[in-house]
Amino acid sequence: MTGQEKKNKPTSIRSMAELSVFKQQFEEATDSETLSEEQRAVFAQREAYLERRKPTHNVVSIVAYLLGVGKQHFENVDEPPRIEIYDQLDQNQDARIIRNLCIVRNAMEQKYKAISQTFYLEGKNIGTIPNLIPSEAVEALYRDNADIYMVWSADRIYIISDYWQHIYK
What we know:
By secondary structure, the protein is mostly helical. 69% of the residues lie in helices and 0% in strands.
């Protein structure tokens, strides 16, 4: 196989990681003469693909932010959530409140039995069990003036038990 035949062989990219490496090589090349027409076509296709996918990625990014997906997923260039959307929504107080409420809700659904026992047996509040409910979310809600708490009222137990004592006397 001669050098001319190697140049004409099409470039195949099998993953987003390979495409990222290819893009980095493209950006490092300062002289447009060093890139072949095929490489320019691949990058043009990539840019067109990104433009078509932008609305979908915006929706995915917004939903992922509101559901409490970690920031590391937004920072990864090989995953759909976009960091620009994360930063934009993180500036909005209402979006932060919804995000943190979802994080707390998910923790409560996943660890309901342990949280319920902790509330009932130990009398702890939602912000005092960081091993079960992420304290960062509760603190962020507090900073955004969205206090959530569960009142542990021993008075109800006292009133009920006092009521039964009067009945049986």
